[in-house]
Each structure stands twice: as C-alpha cells, then as structure tokens.
Specification:
Shape: elongated
Strand content: 5-15%
Number of helices: 20
Number of strands: 10
CATH topology of the largest domain: Arp2/3 complex 21 kDa subunit ARPC3
Largest sheet: 5 strands, antiparallel
Helix content: 55-70%
Number of domains: 5
Order of helices and strands: HHHHHHHHHHHHEEHHEEEHHHHEHEEHEE
C-alpha cells in the first residue's frame, strides 16, 4: 500500500531533522569530549542533499534542526536563528542552482562535476554569512578576526558538503548494483579502507603520511572505476572522518598538526578524494553513455541495413572483398551471406559485362565519386543476368575505408520500358506508313485534281480559276507537311533504312536553325544491326542535337557515326556553354530517355564537358558483341 504524500513528507522531514541535529551536535560537541577542534560540519551536506532530493519543502526541518543544534550548544536565540536561517538558505540556494543548470544526480556527465562544485560553493557561502551575522546581532565577540571566522566556518561547511552530499544525492538501488555484482572485490575494498583508517589512527609518527595519502587516493580511484560513485564517496567519507578525528583529538598520523596546517591538510585531502571520485565517475559514465549510444546507433543502422528491400553490401575498395551483405542482396543474387563474405565483387561479373562497379577514376587518373546511378549487368549464382543500377558511396567502417553499394534490380522495369518503346516505335512506323500510303496518296490525288481543274478554269476564263489554284497549292503544302511528319515518325524508313542517310538528313534539317550541324560517318564497315537498334541510335542523336540547339548556344555541332570491328559509336559534340554546374547529367526526361535507349541496345551513354568554353559531348558506344 503506497504511503500518503503528507505522511511521506512528514517522515522525510523528521529524518532530515534527526540527521542534521545528530551530525551537527556531535561535530560541535567534540571539544567538550576532549577534542582540540570541532569536526567538519557534516550536517551542511545532509541539508543540501535533502533540499535537492526532496524539494524546497525541506527548508523547515533544515531550519529547525540548525536552530536546535545551536540552542543545544547553549548559543543565544538570535545567533541560533541566524545559523538555522543560513543553513536553510544555503541548502535551498544550492539545490536551486543544481536544478537551474541541469545537474543530473548520478553524475553521469563530465559537466555535472563543475555544476555541482559551482552550486555548493555559491550556495553554501550563504550559511556562514547569515550565521556570522546572527552571532554579531546577538552581541558575540571573539579575538579572531571576522573574516577568519567566516573562512573557518565556510571551509568546515564545504568539507561536510563534499563528503556527504554526493553519496546522498546519487544513492539508489541501481547505484549499489555494481557493488553487489562484484561483492568479492567490494569486500576486499572494504578491508583495504579499514586498514587505511587503522593506519591513520594507530601510526605513532607522521612518517608514512604521503604514502597513506597516495594509497587512499588509489583506493578511491579503484572504487570509482569498479564499484561506482556511492561506494567511492562512502570510502572517502570514512577515510576523511578518520583523518579529521586524528587531527581533532591529537593522535595518530595527523595528530601532530596544529590548527591552521591541520585544517588546510584536512580540506585538501578531503577535496582530493572527493574530486577524484566525482571526476572519474563522471568521465566513466560519459564514456559508457557514449558507448551505449554508439551501440544503439549501430543496432539501428544494422536494422535499416538488413531490413532494406534493396540489395546493399559493403566491400573493401582495394581488394573488393565483401565485408557486409544484407538479406535483400542474398535474395537478389542467390548467394548466402557466408558465401559472399568469402568472395569478392567479381563473382557478380561476367566476360560479357566486366564493369560491375562504376569507375573510380576519370580519364586523367584523378579519383572521384561516380555521380548518379551506374547502369550495368550482374550475374546471379545460377547464371541469370540482372539489369541493375548501382549507387556507391565511400564510408568509414570501424576506422577502415569501405564502399557502400546499393544495387537496384531494374530488370523488369527495363523489360517493360523496352517493350513500351518498341511498341511506340512500331506504332509510329504504322502511323507513318498509313500517312505515306493513305493520306499522302489521297492528298497527292487531290492536289493533281485541283491543279487540273484550275488549269481548265483558267483556259475557259472561268472566275474560280484563282481559287482552285490556291486550293491546289494548299494541298501541296499539306503533302509536304505529311512528308515531314512521316520523316519524324519513321526517319529510317524515309531514308531507305540507312542510319547514315537519316543522320545526314537530321544534320541538314537542324542546320536550317542557323547553327551548322556537321555530319560524318567513319569506319567503313556496314551497320549490321536491326531497325530497332538503328532507330535508338537516331533518337539519341536527335535528342542530343535538339538539346544543343536549344540550351547550349553552340556555334557548331559535330555529329559523327563510327562503325568498325569494335562496334558502333555515336558522338554529338558542341562548342556551347556546357551543362550548368548544379545539374545532374541524368536530369530531365530527355537525358533519362537517352540513357534508357543506350541500355536497351546494350550500350553505354556518357555525357561530359569538353572544350575551353565547356561544350558538351554525348557519346553512345555499343560493343560488337551487342550489335544484332
């Protein structure tokens, strides 16, 4: 059954009051029990921790406990009120500064240490300030200067806060998990702390003081690394308390110190132990958090990598061995992950298609990233040929260079596209045939009839002769228009099936725009290719010439067709302004269509900048083995 909020608040307030009163009374009452000096004011650390963990409502028990301690020490009521008010105000201010600056109670980040130190140094400065003011109002007098009095009070309070607050702020069930998991190491560590405290208390001389200091720091460092913050701060509290007792009662290793050196030594020793514990804990926690975040990121990336529906792999850029392969790549190529990881990328290639990946260097040998998808063919394990688009990127794989590859299977898409293009080309040829054989013949007959009627009317001096002549001319223009339409729909048929003749006609028509288009055919070997292949070549040339005329502001355009033992090559080179720097060579429907047509006939199309002005060269190369 959960405890009601009001009851919980009362329980916490009572516990805070009891802890502050006990620690404060014991620390201040020690001189009455034989101590030379009072112990550090540990109750300040309890007050700060309670105010941070349980909220500002703890101000009342903190205030009452501070007042009660001073009254128990028989101090004046005004002075007691000042001490209580200073303790409560300092604790509240410290807690507010911690919250304001985003402090995390488990000291899980390196920045939490300076935040904590800043908050308690500023916040707990209020406690001695208001406390000293209370004593002065009460009429207290002392031979010690007031600023020395304030410094002693503040240093004693700071030691208490440093010793107690970190453990009380960070303590939780989870904070003790590492201690319970490594209980053998924990037991050995407790034994070492006990030995250290015994040496401090029982050593008759200060000879081994530097050794015990180093040993203590080592114990705290080890416990912070292996057992956690709470355990290490409790160890620091135990060692510092024994050091304070040795100094205060004048026995053991620190008993020979006088007041000022003793306070300075105690403050420095305690600060060193706590600082080592806090800093190491924070750095380790930040490192562990970064490692966990990396693991989560790697897990997310692994899920994305394996869950992608596209084939993805990573290979070494030097020997091309597979390093990572996702499930889609296994399905696409038919190899298992284990089989691929023992092979290199060449397993996907064949003699018919040696270019598995995009080139890594340009013609001048300068390395580069290949822009856009690289179109090629890959082989599956059972020998099937896949049309793929390959995208590559250089990545860092655990500190080693690697290549990330996306291989998109576009076989079905290309098959459908080729069928669609062939169907369109067939339909164009059918329409051209019907226009030429049907509409063209009828328009020719109409023009001849109109010409005959116009001649007859003119001879008989009939008034409609001029109109008939105009109709005959209109019919003739329609015939010319239909011829141009036929040439556009089926340029090869109009050129008798000759690609050279069709390209020559294209150059002559394009030159009518005012920009000379020069055509030449080289190689001398006959073009042993079917009509569909030649038609694709013509359409690529037509699109490239049109782009140069429309966008390049070229002075001349060179159109060249090469046919030799190596295959068929087509190049369209202009001396215009070139492609814009921010445009992809595959941008636009026209450019994508040219690439598609080149792949449809087993060729490769490249678009690059040439010349001083930055002209554009469009080249399509089809090897002899692909020419049908």
């Amino acid at each position: 059954m959960p405890i009601p909020a009001k009851t919980s608040l009362l329980v916490r307030g009572a516990a805070t009051f009891a802890a502050i009163f006990t620690m404060g009374f014991v620390g201040l009452a020690l001189p009455a029990w034989g101590a030379r000096f009072p112990l550090p004011l540990l109750h300040g650390g309890i007050a700060a921790a309670a105010s941070y963990r349980w909220g500002r409502r703890m101000w009342l028990p903190v205030f009452l406990a501070g007042v009660t301690v001073e009254l128990a020490m028989k101090q004046a009521f005004i002075a007691s009120l000042g001490v209580g008010a200073g303790l409560a105000a300092g604790a509240l201010l410290s807690a507010w500064l911690l919250e304001k600056n985003g402090f995390e109670p488990d000291f899980g980040r390196a920045r939490d240490v300076p935040i904590f130190l800043f908050a308690i140094v500023i916040g707990m400065s209020v406690a001695p300030t208001i406390g000293v003011a209370g004593f002065l109002l009460a009429g207290a007098s002392s031979a010690t200067p007031r600023y020395v009095w304030w410094i002693r009070w503040w240093s004693s309070t700071m030691i208490g806060v440093l010793l107690v607050s970190p453990a009380l702020i960070a303590i939780s069930r989870q904070s003790l998990t590492r201690f319970l998991e490594h209980w053998i190491e924990g037991a050995l560590w407790i034994l070492c702390v006990a030995i250290c405290c015994a040496v401090i208390a029982l050593s008759p001389t200060p000879v081994g003081r530097s050794v015990i200091v180093m040993f203590s720091i080592l114990l705290i460092v080890v416990s912070a690394i292996r057992l956690g913050l709470v355990v290490s701060t409790l160890g620091a509290l135990s060692i510092s308390t024994m050091t304070a007792v040795s100094f205060s009662f004048g026995f053991g290793m620190f008993g020979a110190l006088t007041e000022f050196p003793g306070r300075l030594t105690l403050f420095s020793f305690t600060a060193t132990l706590i600082a080592a514990s806090l800093i190491i804990t924070a750095l380790l926690a930040e490192r562990d958090a970064a490692a966990r975040e990396r693991l989560r990121a790697e897990h997310r990336y692994a899920q994305i990598f394996d869950g992608s529906p596209q084939a993805i792999w990573v290979h070494d850029p030097h020997d091309l061995h597979f390093l990572l392969v996702n499930e889609a790549a296994q399905r696409q190529y038919g190899w298992t992950r284990g089989e691929l990881l023992t092979r290199d990328v060449s397993v996907l290639g064949s003699a018919a298609e040696p270019h598995i990946l995009p080139p890594r260097t340009t013609a001048d040998g300068v390395g580069r990233e290949y822009a856009g998808p690289f179109e090629t063919r890959h082989l599956t394990k059972n020998g099937d040929v896949l049309e793929v688009e390959v995208w590559t990127r250089s990545i860092d794989l655990g500190g080693r260079p690697a290549e990330l590859v996306f291989a998109v299977d576009v076989t079905e898409r290309r098959t459908f596209g080729k069928a669609l293009v062939d169907a369109l080309a067939g339909e164009q040829r059918r329409i051209a045939r019907e226009i030429h054989d049907g509409l063209g013949q009828e328009l020719t007959g109409l023009a001849l009839s109109l010409r005959a009627l116009a001649t007859r009317a003119e001879r008989s001096l009939q008034p409609g002769a001029a109109d008939l002549d105009g109709l005959a001319k209109l019919a003739t223009r329609c015939i010319e228009g239909s011829k141009r339409i036929v040439q556009g729909l089926s340029p090869l048929n109009d050129a008798g099936g000759s690609l050279e003749a069709a390209l020559d006609a294209l150059a002559r028509r394009a030159s009518m725009s005012g920009t000379p288009v020069r055509f030449r055919a080289t190689g001398g070997m006959p073009l042993a290719a079917n009509t569909e292949t030649l038609d694709h070549f013509y359409r690529i040339a037509q699109e490239a010439v049109q782009n140069a005329l429309t966008h390049a502001a070229a002075r001349t355009i060179d159109l060249e067709l090469r046919s030799d033992g190596g295959g068929i090559g087509l190049s369209i080179v202009d001396d215009g302004c070139g492609l814009p720097a921010d445009i992809d060579s595959r941008a636009g429907l026209g450019m994508r269509t040219m690439h598609f047509r080149a792949r449809a006939i087993g060729g490769r199309l490249t678009i690059e900048t040439v010349g001083k002005r930055g002209g554009v060269a469009v080249r399509c190369e089809v090897p002899a083995r692909q020419v049908i």
